[in-house]
Amino acid sequence: MSSVEEFRNEIRDWLRTHLTGDFADLRGRGGPGREHEAFAERLAWERHMAAAGWTCVGWPTEYGGRGATLEQQVAFHEEYALADAPARVGHLGEQLLGPTLMAFGTPEQRERFLPTIVAVEELWCQGYSEPDAGSDLANIRTRAELDGDTWKVTGQKIWTSLALESDWCFVVARTTPGSTRHHGLSYLLVPLDQPGVDIRPIHQLTGTSEFNEVFLDGARTAAENVVGAPGDGWKVAMATLGFERGVSTLGQQVGFRRELTALTELAQRNGAATDPVIRDRLARAWIGLETIRFNALRLIESVAAGSPGPEASIGKIYWATWHRELGELAMDVCGADGLLAAGAPYDLTDWQRLFLFSRSDTIYAGSNEIQRNIIAERVLGLPKEVRP
């Protein structure tokens, strides 16, 4: 096993050598609010990475990964972000479903699905939120019943990222009739290319549509495609959310730092930095970014110890609010120019897209309100919120 610095140098050199030619144009492409950018080319890039063994680096070698240590995984995500490499397209499979299958899946499920995630041959999306059960996941109404040797799934999911580009969806559905809240749920793996699945893009203020509605009308999946025991889906789903906030968040911080640096340079060029209020907000944003990194390191340490605590909710509230406020600061730095589209009919600048899309940061992956309830009820022991 190489040292952290050797590992860091290895991925840095590989990216420098391979993020060239046709792939060089992918630098900085994709990511939240920009998933439409060069998707096919980014998929080809990620498969190129897979062929060289640079996907799923933190997975055990027995499952096709590199068995990288926690420190090496941090180095990988930081170097990937520092190279301005394109946003990943297989991250939901690699960072969410894969670890979930390792923890709760059967040997047959691991053998069937993990190799195709490593090779980026199958893409995944997450079927959690519903129109009446966004951050309140326990309120879901999608139901599934066992019909012979298949599950029959009926319901509606919403805000399903990259559903149109995905092959499979991990779906939380109610499988015990009459059950309520977090009881009687199951975690199912559902193929999307089949009758009974209708995917409709949701067009956003940014002009993009990486979010989707997914309508399931008797869609089917094999009986063995339930992860964990039937009715035990809440525990599995919560574990997946824990994996969502792992080491890759440090790569996210590098992206945030790049945005703040570019915004500071813009403020210096257009004179906005001469305004003491703007200057103070830029300084506070830098301090906030350091706090985000500290929270991320605490979370990673707790996840590695197998006991993720309130750091997950604290970190999510903090970075989401910070990023939304950065978008607002960007508009103030741009001044009147921020009100003008870059071109017809609706060509947005990067700052305008940041401002608009970052409004969703405090909603997706657990809204700020729900995260505060979690901290209040489960950490501080305060009385539970009254529910109708």
> In angstroms, what separates the terminal alpha carbons?
55 Å
Alpha carbon gyration radius: 21 Å
Q: How confident overall, as mean pLDDT?
A: 88
Architecture of the largest domain, according to CATH? Up-down Bundle
CATH class of the largest domain: Mainly Alpha
Domain Acyl-CoA dehydrogenase/oxidase C-terminal: 231-380
GO molecular function: flavin adenine dinucleotide binding; oxidoreductase activity, acting on the CH-CH group of donors
InterPro entries: Acyl-CoA_Oxase/DH_mid-dom, Acyl-CoA_Oxase/DH_mid-dom_sf, AcylCo_DH-like_C, AcylCo_DH/oxidase_C, AcylCoA_DH/ox_N, AcylCoA_DH/ox_N_sf, AcylCoA_DH/oxidase_NM_dom_sf, Mycobact_Acyl-CoA_DH
Domain Acyl-CoA oxidase/dehydrogenase middle: 125-214
Topology:
Elements: H1 4-18, H2 39-51, H3 70-82, H4 91-104, H5 107-118, E1 124-127, E2 143-147, E3 150-157, E4 168-174, E5 185-191, E6 197-201, E7 212-222, E8 226-227, H6 233-244, H7 248-270, H8 276-304, H9 311-334, H10 350-357, H11 368-379
Helix pairs in contact: 1-3, 3-7, 4-5, 4-6, 7-8, 7-9, 8-9, 9-10, 9-11
Could you walk me through the main structural features you see in this protein, from its secondary elements to its overall organization?
This protein has 388 residues and is an alpha+beta fold. The chain has three domains: 4-89, Butyryl-Coa Dehydrogenase, subunit A, domain 1, CATH 1.10.540; 124-231, Butyryl-CoA Dehydrogenase, subunit A, domain 2 (Beta Barrel), CATH 2.40.110; 245-379, Butyryl-CoA Dehydrogenase, subunit A, domain 3 (Up-down Bundle). The protein is built from eleven helices and eight strands. The chain has helices spanning 4-18, 39-51, 70-82, 91-104, 107-118, 233-244, 248-270, 276-304, 311-334, 350-357, 368-379; strands spanning 124-127, 143-147, 150-157, 168-174, 185-191, 197-201, 212-222, 226-227. Strands 1-4-5-8 form a four-stranded mixed sheet. Helix 1 runs parallel beside helix 3. The chain is globular. The mean pLDDT is 88.
